[in-house]
Amino acid sequence: MILISVGIFTLMATLDGSIVNIALPVISKNLNIEMNMAEWVVSIYLVTICIFLLMFGKIADSIGKIKVFKIGSVMFIIGSIVCGLSDNLVMLLVGRVIQATGASMAMATNNGIITETFPLRERGYALGYIGSFVSIGAIAGPGIGGLILGHFHWSYIFWINIPIGLVALILGYVNLPKVEKTNPVKFDKTGFAAYFVTLLLFFGAIFVGQSIGFTNPYIIVAFVAAIIFFGIFLTIEKKVTNPMIELRIFRNHNFTLGLVAGFFIFVTNFFFNVISPFYLENALGIAASTASYILMAFPLVQVVVAPISGKISAKVNPIVLTIVGLVVIELAQLGYLAFNLKTEIWFILLCIGLNGLGNGLFQAPNNTMIMSSVETKDLGIAGGLNALSRNLGMIIGVSVSTTVLFLSMSKFYGKSVTTYVEGRPDIFIDGMRVTMSFAVVICLIAIVMSVVRLIKSGRSSNE
């Protein structure tokens, strides 16, 4: 019951990072805003999670993980109510920030609660299930969102969180331990300030740069300032007694390579996650509800394959399994690259299903390797960094894909483009093809990294 209550909120918190994607064309028209402004509804949620995730992890160690988890659950529900009531972009963004703050509190503590609650012999399976909740939540958003849009107003994407959230909250109140271990430590305020400014400048420069151009002096200054503050952050983390991020953990090559490979795959997935609603709904003219059925091929395949992959990884080298999964994902990206205005639905479904198959094969063994490559005392840190890498992957995927899409569309159109050009689907298809080429390269990097990890692990076992 503890696993269910923690898992439901983990699923919802991750789902809300992607569920809005399918509704962006509808929200854009309903609120009378351009596509790049509508993207902020997704981006501000992910940015807020990335900013506060590690901070709440540290606070949870001091005052109690369950307490922070419960507060975060309540905040998430309140944020969902604000989003549901929104009739303008500003109110919607405020609601998303409240939602994301609550989500970051839940994400920062879920692995810690599971680690402390479950005995060692069951911990791996429990953490694996939480990983599955995260992966499915991140990918199933457009499909589930489309099903809701097919029958209700877009605000119901947020209203649905309230009854489910209340059930999870009651389950958590009844089942989660009332007493827990705490470890009061001094919070790294200076480090957090440098980290906060770094992310704010970096992502602010990316999203504002999409509108005013990346050669704008203010955007260039913002990028340079972000690099400087990141250097300051690393310097602080090396010197303080209780840093926000334990940099020493990155000396573990298995952990670091697994983390980075996972990050690249979340970036890759979010390229098509962001572009697919506009391709299916605007370019091909498919209804949102029908588009959702098509996109559901991904999570449906993944949810079947993931547990099978988890069992197989116990019998064969899990790194080999991750490489097989990555190769299948790469095939799917190459398929996306071939999409055009005449592409048959069966081919679209095949590519989306292949992507789900590849992710199902990759995610479970990769998450297990990440968590099992560290010592027991570092499980909390590893879980927090794993969650951060996933969310960074999602937001980098959103920001880079939209940036490349708009820049390439602008080049093909001959003037600045920050939204879908009505009546010119060819411009969007050309931009999409360039954008998905980047996804192919990113996935290829992940494959190379995993092959390196396999070679290194082979050498270590021989020694």
UniProtKB/TrEMBL annotation:
Q: State the compartments where it is located.
A: Cell membrane
- Source organism per entry reads Companilactobacillus paralimentarius DSM 13238 = JCM 10415
Q: What is the lineage of its organism?
A: Bacteria, Bacillati, Bacillota, Bacilli, Lactobacillales
UniProt cross-references to PROSITE patterns, sorted A to Z = MFS
InterPro entries from the entry? MFS, MFS_dom, MFS_trans_sf
Q: Kindly state one GO CC term assigned in the UniProt record.
A: plasma membrane
Task: Give the source's domain of life in one word.
Answer: Bacteria
Query: GO molecular function: any one?
Result: transmembrane transporter activity
The membrane-spanning stretches of this chain are 37-56, 68-87, 93-114, 126-150, 156-176, 192-212, 218-236, 257-280, 286-306, 318-339, 345-362, 392-414, 434-455
Kindly give the membrane topology term recorded for this protein. Answer: Multi-pass membrane protein
Which Pfam families does the protein's record reference? MFS_1 (PF07690)
Q: Which key words are in the record? A: Membrane, Transmembrane, Transmembrane helix, Transport
Major localization class: membrane
Per its UniProt record, what Gene3D superfamilies does this chain match? MFS general substrate transporter like domains (1.20.1250.20), Multidrug resistance protein D (1.20.1720.10)
Span of domain Major facilitator superfamily (MFS) profile:
2-458
Record-given protein name = Drug H(+) antiporter
